[in-house]
């Protein structure tokens, strides 16, 4: 399948804020050494039309920054994002008109909705501004999308504070869908919700995908949610993609040591007599993106690291079963080679 949305060699670096002492020293002519925070570091990724891609990684690995660049909200330091081959965002540019075809659902529905705006106005404002509907059609149009996310049309006259967290997230989803997007980027959309409400929102995403044929990027640190929703999964570590592949393949047989470590760190019930819970935490601390380690970013925490890993950054390359892996010694591939 051809890619609908893709990013090519995209990066985003942030300049660190200076402390008061550093600002005073700089004003007096002193040279202050600063290092850019590499939130996203030369990522290439694509999503096919109608596909759901799950983006997984620890907090602080750059998932949200990558999602915002793909949505055209944030400008990259280098590289470009393309929608149907047309630029959405490239280094130093502003969002193009085509980015209305990409909409985003954010993590916190309490922060993403204006508390002073009725939800009917919040949902209808964008479609009216972009000429998708006339102002006189707004009430019926808003009611249609409220119904699509499981809410009543009469709720349009209420304010965000009159709704629960789960209802607010449904409103945020309705607001995004009202723009008639081709691509929906969901940034941890269930992370702030109770477990029971999370299941309802996940089922809503599944229904909407089936009914509307949406293409989706689903960002989460919850491996179980991503496995349930996504066709393919991309694993991110310290600003880089380290593995991509079909969800069932990646979960069944991870090729990158970090993917394996993530899966092993998820608590799960065991039915055999004896232990009831298996849990293996990832060793070591996540390095600072201000000063990432040389070579493979994961080598300091990797039990399989070799001298080459400390010196040479691995490229994201294809391996077996429609997989790409950024590892000098992919799991299974190395063992298979050693037995021949």
Description:
The chain is of the alpha/beta class and 340 residues long. The protein is built from twelve helices and 14 strands. The strands form three sheets. It has an eight-stranded mixed sheet with strand order 6-7-8-3-9-10-14-13, sandwiched between helices. A four-stranded antiparallel sheet has the order 2-1-4-5, with helices on one face. It has a two-stranded antiparallel sheet with strand order 11-12. The chain is globular. The two termini are 34 Å apart.
Write a brief caption for the model:
With 340 residues, this protein is of the alpha/beta class.
Q: Give the biggest sheet.
A: 8 strands, mixed
Side-by-side strand order of the widest sheet:
6-7-8-3-9-10-14-13
Number of alpha- plus pi-helical segments: 12
Question: Structural class per helix/strand content?
Answer: alpha/beta
Using the CA coordinates, give the radius of gyration: 22 Å
Q: What brief labels describe this structure?
A:
340 residues, alpha/beta, 4-stranded antiparallel beta sheet, 12 helices, 31% helix
Topology at a glance:
Elements: E1 3-14, H1 20-27, E2 37-48, E3 52-56, H2 63-71, E4 78-83, E5 86-90, E6 102-105, H3 109-112, H4 119-129, H5 138-148, H6 165-177, E7 183-187, H7 195-212, E8 215-220, H8 223-229, E9 232-237, E10 240-246, H9 247-252, H10 257-264, E11 268-269, E12 277-278, H11 307-311, E13 317-319, E14 323-325, H12 333-339
Parallel strand pairs: 3-8, 3-9, 6-7, 7-8
Antiparallel strand pairs: 1-2, 1-4, 4-5, 9-10, 10-14, 11-12, 13-14
